[in-house]
Amino acid sequence: MKIIYILLTRTNTLFSQIVHLLTKAEYTHAAISLNNEMTCVYSFARRYANNPFCIRFMREDISHGVYARNNGTPCAVYALTVSDIAYSNIKNQIETMFNEKQSYRYNYRGVIANYLGKEHKFPRHYFCSEFVSKILIKAGVLHTKKSPCMIRPMDFTQMTQMKMVYSGNTKDLMSFPRRNIKEVRKCFKTITQQLLNA
């Protein structure tokens, strides 16, 4: 068995602020990581911090860009236990998409439709939580009646198979692997072991 991680954040971008204002959602962005140090976090996000119109599938660096503003971005990390086969499936899906990243685009219409309660699917177009949920559903580790294009970042917090292992901000999240001890790293290790032994 292995663990994958879902990173939920709320940046101070205009879009994130509007979503937060209208929905009161604590988190407005979702990404997926294959390791607990968050060194490889994947999602559909801004390629350049100051350009809201250039959104691509990418490997995000949560220590820079929009995440580094205002002394860190509010975030939470959820862990999901998966089989070795499912983990390989997820890893292969992400690697394939990353190798073909130029052919993927952000689903602008889809994210607007989502918040209007409507579905809008388009080949090779995704918004953040649509991408994460589709990867998990295709790997057979996420079971939901919702279409991926109707899933929002906050939905992951309500999924029973998810276990929250961190809540705080991205600055502290990135600093804990470089400290000698500490509660957050210890928490990751303890909960990961509990999930694997369950």
Could you describe the 3D structure shown?
The chain has six helices and eight strands. The strands form two sheets. The chain has a six-stranded antiparallel sheet, with helices on both faces. Strands 6-7 form a two-stranded parallel sheet. Helix content is 33%, strand content 23%. By secondary structure, it is an alpha+beta fold. The protein has a single domain (2-197), classed as endopeptidase fold (from Nostoc punctiforme), CATH 3.90.1720.10. Strand 3 and strand 4 form a beta hairpin.
Number of helices: 6
State which percent range the strand residues make up: 15-25%
Structural class by sheet pairing and helices = alpha+beta
Query: In total, how many domains does the architecture comprise?
Result: 1
User: Which CATH class applies here?
Assistant: Alpha Beta
Mean of pLDDT: 84
Query: Which strand order does the major sheet show?
Result: 4-3-2-1-5-8
Which fold does the CATH topology refer to?
Answer: endopeptidase fold (from Nostoc punctiforme)
Q: Radius of gyration in whole Å, from Cα?
A: 16 Å
Largest sheet: 6 strands, antiparallel
CATH H-tier superfamily: endopeptidase domain like (from Nostoc punctiforme)
Number of strands: 8
Spans where pLDDT lies below 50 across 5 or more residues: 177-182
Helical content stands at 25-40%
Which sequence of SSEs, written as H and E, runs from N to C?
A: EHEEEEHEHEHEHH
Head-to-tail CA distance between termini: 10 Å
**What is the 3D form?**
globular
What CATH architecture would you give? Alpha-Beta Complex
